[in-house]
Amino acid sequence: MLIRGRRNRASEGIRTLVREHTLSVQDLVMPLFVQDGSNRKTEVVSMPGIFRYSPDLLLEECRYLVSLGIQAVVLFPALDDSKKDKMATESVNPEGLYLTAIRRIKKELPELVVITDVALDPYSSDGHDGVVNEAGDIVNDETLPVLARMAVAQAQAGADSVAPSDMMDGRVEVIRRALDAAGFTTTGILAYSAKYASAFYGPFRDALDSAPKKGDKKTYQMDPANSREALREVALDIAEGADMVMVKPGLPYLDVLKAVAEISSVPVAVYNVSGEYAMLKAAALNGWIDYKKCVLESLTAFKRAGADLILTYHAREAAEWLKK
Ligand code: PBG
Q1: pTM of the shown model
Q2: CATH says 24-323 is which class?
Q3: Which residue among the candidates 83, 217, 248, 281 is catalytic per the annotation?
């Protein structure tokens, strides 16, 4: 007897019935870039369709995302060089661009989950996620208090969840303690646990003008050749108090995502990063692929691999398609 797998693929009805994973707008988190000014919207050259918004337009964009059913955004600040220094001091300026933007969004759209970024790079004159010493090393333990202050300032501004993207050792515990000590016991931590030293972050660094001035990020971000290490980082972050863990980038690391999803006792996020977005967009703009189908297929692959939430620059478009 011939075993016929095709019977379960015979019609859209049957395919729908046996489908294992469904992409929902509720899985999607939209990353957004904020810049100074008002009524200003600047397209990121290497990310067509993605903009840096002044705070007023950012709020408008968030309103639109909420109307699409998107529940969460993750915010990144694009600062002028004049605001950057070695210790990232602008990151805790309560009247600075980032913290005022967070306060404004949470005031106008309290139901929108706002996830904030904890790392030095957008504010650092060195373009690194940690403090750089005279020898040029990115120093772990000196960075931790800076991250903790940043996290508390963001919680104070109303962040629902702070997301350390810096890959310093021990930062989740230090941030958890600082948040609790400041009374922010309900502010969550989404840890970028398995974050690789990836070339796919290129367009993001264009967006924020945040590329390292010297060297690379390989002493803190993970080697793309490793997966066992990802499980260790995830286990540590969970032990230190992470409420959710993340794998980043996405598509080139689906095996890591799957392995993490299998062992994690907390929800697992994946970051479908800027370079991944740029690849599909560029191919689409050349007329080489069916953009919508490729995006939905990619996002579904994250669900299949075990992601509970997906940070993706396609979130806005995907939400529009899923709504119809
Ligand atoms: C840095 C940070 C990066 C991204 C998010 N946070 C880049 C980096 O590590 O250099 C990348 C996101 C993307 O490429 O979309 N803290």
Answers
A1: 0.97
A2: alpha beta
A3: 248
